[in-house]
Amino acid sequence: MPSIPDINWLQLMPQLVIVATLLIVLIFDMIDSISKRTLGWMTIVGAGIALWSTINLLQVGTDQTQFNEMFRVDSYSLFFNIIFLVSTILVALISISYLGSDDKKQGPYYLLILLATLGMMLMAAGNELIIVFLGLELMSLSLYVLAGYFRESPASSEAGMKYLLLGAFASAFFLYGIALVYGAAGTTKIPEIISKLSLDNQPTPLSTSPLLLAGIFLLIVGFGFKVAIVPFHQWAPDVYEGAPTTIAAFISAGPKAAGFAAFLTIFVDALPNLPSHATNVIVLLAMLTMTVGNVIAITQTNIKRMLAYSSIAHAGYVLIGLAAANPDGKSSAMLYLFIYCVMNIGAFGAVILARTADGENLMISDYAGLGIRKPLLAMFMTLMLLSLAGFPPTAGFVGKLYVFKSAVQAGHYWLVIFGAVNTAISAFYYLRVVVTMYMREPEEELEFKPYPSTLVIGLVIAAIGILLIGILPSLLLDQAQNAVQSAPL
Amino acid sequence: MLLSIVIFLPLLGVIAIALLRGLGANAVKWIALGIGLLTFVISIGLYTGFDEVIVGFQTNSDLFQKLDWIPGIGASYHIGIDGISLWLVLLTTFLTPICIIAAWNSVEKGLSGFMMSLLALETGMLGVFCSLDLFLFFVFWESMLIPMYFLIGIWGGERRIYATIKFVLYTMAGSALMLVGILALYSQNNSSFDITTLQGPFQQANLLFLAFFIAFAIKVPLFPFHTWLPDAHVEAPTVGSVILAGVLLKMGTYGIVRFCLPLFPEAAAHYTPLIVPLAVIGIIYGALVAMVQPDLKKLVAYSSVSHLGFVVLGLFSQNDTAIQGSVLQMVNHGLSTGALFLLVGMIYERRHSRMIVDFGGLAKKMPIFATIFLIVTLSSIGLPGLNGFVGEFMILLGSFVGGAFSKWYVVLATTGVILAAVYMLWMFQRVMFGIPDDINASLPDLKPREIAVLLPILLFIFWIGVGPNTFLKPMEASIKEVATKVKVVPETPEVGQVNRQADTDDAVQEVKTATLQMIQMIEEEALTK
């Protein structure tokens, strides 16, 4: 006779606030007399309250599970909640002006963003492969629609379609992986799987079971698709290019962090107990991802595609932290994801800021002369790109350094050398945009739209965040390190 | 506190200019100059507060500061100076206001951006010289790239974009390796980035040495890593070249003497047979290439390659005198080459050409310019009584008498001094003497502002030349410390390392006198010309 578990609803506040917000957005969208432009602000306020309650929970320092140990409320999942909510707020800020005043478009857009955010929070909080899968699907389904949100644009529809097809494949892989792991371990609870893995004194230790290994590798494939690591990355550039720019920013930030949240939960603790091939696979994937992402990004002429390949490369840096498979590796990957989300949304925001009256300016050559004609825009863009390239004193530098540090401590010297060389390669294409903005003369005079205030607010927040974390990393670093220490091993 | 103020005052200037640039170009210039001069004046306090008896870093609370910064990874805000960094810090604060005055009228577009870059660069360079924490060091090392990148890329010549990207990529490739080295050191140092607690021997010292050394060698630049330098110099605006030659290159040699030598003495000795030939090749190759340059700026750029070869040679000699000479020569090169670039910039503003063939007979119409140019040229060659002589002589003497390598290398290096006389004096002759054509005859002589830019440098050129002890004394204790650390190494006969005893004293003496005679002859000839 299954009993209904006690549920501490207070600990679910962040998720509940998001659910409430999305219901409010849904209802307000149906009331005709209300201006739909307020929906964006509702999203921001809702996510802001959720962020506030997350920070409150983090300060109290809870370390519990809910719903029969399926759902974790610990500083690890709360840290990721902060990443997701900050991303959501920033994306909503840059979306308000981007969507324009078309009322029909507003409601579903914010609704889907909130749903995706809820899915991400589920993934980070999942203590159980099934919950992770539910979160993954909730997030992915919302994103498929969002990618194809501009129905009248063929590129957007194509992006949505492509994302749906490949994403569905990935989900199938993931689900099959869960099934195989369950078959081998007899449970879908992540801590139980990990503790069974560490019992290697049995006649047939679980860590060498072919069934489990097959399942693990299928999980890697599934995650690989979702976070766009090479060789599962092909969808990313097309989707980023075709999707609305705000959604490209969103897909490249939160969902990637969510994918890694689940990835890290499972693998950082499991890797030491798996055969060394598993670590080698991750190391190899990290090297491939960084190198392929950075090298292909060099040849791009479209800024959205360039940012797409750059975001692939950044997934590679996060994988370095994963491959280190020590507490520092885990917290460095978390810190990196946070910083990456802020700077990447900032970079896409700057792309939106460079819109002209007759559409978006996506060719890098269009940016010529912006340094003098649009100093504010050029400054934002430069700051974001320098941070992506990992120059101090921006946050990107701290993130990279910490990831490298954890890998050196784990003895992965070659991986770090690869990462460091890749940083130098990436500087080339990031700086090329800066070169174009400041050092080349424009070929034709473009009519730029005036700066929308919400977009500028979003960019200012991102810029301050990047500099603040770059100069005083302890603000965030200590949180990430605490989160890892409290996580159940 | 004083040291922190010196480092971050220029950054304050950057912020002030950013906020006040609406006041117009003149206000921006005066703010920049005011901040630059104030920084220099305050930095004199570093010299007056400096206690030359102290071995290692100064303990005076004005010259030393340590604060927790990122305890989570063991990085701290830890700064201080010793005898090695003292003069480099002062050189930086000295050259920056000079550069600001030199750029007074020559920047046409984006003046506020130019001044902001210059001041930001100053903070970065000062930070590199003062950091006692590897993390902090790397932050400054990398962050100083950005303003330099803008200085060359926005205000440079025709091929500025190529030059600036080459500069950044070369440096980043080096610093990527150094980052790995820093992290490896960190994990062997109880997870602390503190430089003062670093104690060898380290595991994998040879690899770590190379990781650091290549990054510094690119910056110096040591042959064969020098190819970015001529491009960067030629395309950079005058002030950019001055800073690049005057201070940025010294970050490489400073890194060698601060990290490579004391942290990995065995590895340094192990690679000395490889590095010293490269330094000697750099000396001769740089001089030969400088000789045939048709472009004044490129000539000065290649002369830097040659001069810094001497510095590297001295650093790896394991001899106090030579190491001290090298550190002094860093300052000397900063002054002489900085002044040369300023002079080339001034003549370029008048003639809009840097080709030597376009000039001739300038001495007749521009006597002040010609006089100052001659003094700086002679200082660069190493005429006794001027600064260049002291440094080069100490390097050559020290490495000849007590060098850890064959004396023949020193003999070969000495030919660099002769070659320097050849290319510098030949250039001087072609530019200054002869009959001026119409254009050259119409060029105006130096303006008071330009003389004001050059006079302070001349003062130090003479001061170091005549009274070098003022400058050598404060660095003595720190140099001795480095030299003893380096000397601990037992001499192992490596392949390619020649036994010192093999050279008989007689032969040595012969070569010595012959070389010195030759130098003397050349110099006399130069003077008579």
The overall pLDDT average of chain A reads 86
Helix-strand string of chain A: HHEEHHHHHHHHHHHHHHHHH
Q: Beta fraction of the residues of chain A?
A: under 5%
- Low-confidence runs of chain A: none
N→C terminal distance of chain A: 30 Å
CA gyration radius of chain B, whole angstroms? 22 Å
Shape descriptor of chain B reads globular
**Structural class of the secondary structure composition of chain A?**
mainly alpha
Give an account of the 3D structure.
The complex is a heterodimer of chains A (489) and B (529). With 489 residues, chain A is mostly helical. In chain A, 75% of the residues lie in helices and 1% in strands. Chain A has helices at 13-30, 38-60, 75-98, 103-125, 129-147, 154-185, 190-198, 210-227, 235-242, 245-270, 276-298, 303-324, 327-353, 370-373, 375-389, 395-409, 413-439, 453-471, 474-486, and strands at residues 64-66, 71-73. A two-stranded antiparallel sheet of chain A has the order 1-2. Chain A starts with 12 loop residues before the first helix and ends with a helix. Chain B is an all-alpha fold. Chain B has helices at 2-20, 25-48, 83-102, 111-130, 134-143, 145-155, 160-187, 205-219, 228-235, 238-263, 265-291, 296-315, 320-351, 362-365, 367-381, 387-402, 407-432, 438-441, 448-466, 469-487, 505-528, and strands at residues 64-70, 75-80. Chain B has a two-stranded antiparallel ribbon. In chain B, β1 and β2 form a beta hairpin. In chain B, α2 (25-48) packs parallel to α4 (111-130) and α3 (83-102) packs antiparallel against α19. The model of chain B is unreliable at 492-504 (pLDDT under 50). The chains are: A mainly alpha (489), B mainly alpha (529). The interface between A and B is medium-sized, with 34 and 36 residues.
Task: Give the key terms.
heterodimer, A: 489 residues, mainly alpha, 19 helices, 75% helix, 1% strand, B: 529 residues, two-stranded antiparallel sheet, 2% strand
